[in-house]
Amino acid sequence: MRKFLVLMFAAFLFITPAFAQDQTSAGTKEQPAAAAKEFVVYSDKNARDNHYIPSGWMGDYGDIKLNDQAMDNPHSGATSMQFSYSAKKSQQKGWAGVYWQNPANNWGSKKGGFDLTGMTKLTLWARGVKGGEVIQKFKVGGIGIEPKATYQDSTEVETEPIELTDIWKQYTINLAGKDLSYISAGFGWVTTSDLNPDGATFYIDDIKFEADPAMKQEGKKLEGMPFYVYSDRTSPKNHFIPSGWMGDYGDIKYDGSSKEDPYLGDSCIKIAYNGKAAQGARWAGIFWQNPSNNWGGVDGGYDLSKATKLTFWARGANGGERIEELKVGGLMGEYSDSDSATIGPVILNKEWKQYTIDLKGKDMSYIIGGFAWSTNIDNNPEGATFYLDEIKYE
């Protein structure tokens, strides 16, 4: 019996280090970026170090085609990812995009993702087929934050609109100072039919997080004037997204690339409100937000402290259309707008007219709600069609 116990103890001593090593490895997998200098999202087709899957197709997903093993002049390796966006509005959204997720198709209902603490930037290489293709934004994180999900990304960071060239160029998303403790959406892109009315084909390669000690935390940049909400359908100067549909949102049709007598450039915004009370609210409106669908739950927006007014041009299809309120700011939440200003009601003419929202004395240091309008059935019982153009801070 004593000999048996000695043998058992010796066996325990033998297997314990292996067991401990397995446990250490498992712990390392939970936080793979903790001691790493880089963490790959995508490097090549079927590469072992790819950590996310381009499974989160959004918006007009029917407008997107993906070739994940394009061999036409990759930036490095054997392949890159080719995306073709038709801008045909298959799902009637007017925009489309793709998230790289972990696990695949994870919109916040599954536990996954990675702890990327220590990473300070994400870099990627991109090029267009022709040059001039516009990406509304590249982004990191954002899944499950708004609306809130069980497993929320710990941050959301996105770029300004980017106009691609026909040669490879590196782009960087600054992540210094951001909470990267849980990231299930490693990377994403979004673009719109307004920015690419004829569609766009582009390539993306070598997407990775990097621990760069030289990358410094960004504060809110004080924006120069003029600063556009909307300039033209394809303009990279457009800074806010008309994503905040309110009230009877089913009564609204939005066209951001109307060519019906624009005030300036080759396009304007056309809004048709039918007044049928689809959601029973008896009113409707749209907020231009940054980032999209941000009601105050996400740190975004701009420092527009230099602005003393917002101006825009508007006209009615028939004249006499009444807009109850036109607004800057006023969104409330964890990340609230720093102030708000309104005008209205405004009765539109059939001809273009410029309107001004006075911002003198307002705190414009943090604005996520760049512009908004609202109207109602009582004052437009048969609906209203109207046009907007050249919406900008000055």
Defining key terms:
single chain, 394 residues, globular, mainly beta, six-stranded antiparallel β-sheet, Jelly Rolls
In short:
Helices cover 7% and strands 39% of the residues. The chain has 394 residues and is mainly β. It has two domains: 38-210, Jelly Rolls; 227-393, Galactose-binding domain-like (Jelly Rolls), CATH 2.60.120.260.
User: N- to C-terminal separation?
Assistant: 91 Å
SSE arrangement, N to C: HEEEEEEEEEEEEEEEEEEEEEEEEEE
Any idea how many domains?
A: 2
CATH class of the largest domain: Mainly Beta
Give the class from helix and strand content and strand pairing: mainly beta
Spans where pLDDT lies below 50 across 5 or more residues: 1-31
CATH structural architecture of the largest domain? Sandwich
Question: Judging from the principal axes of the Cα atoms, what is the shape?
Answer: globular
> How much strand?
35-45%
Name the CATH superfamily classification of the largest domain: Galactose-binding lectin
Roughly what percent helix? under 10%
Structural Rg: 25 Å
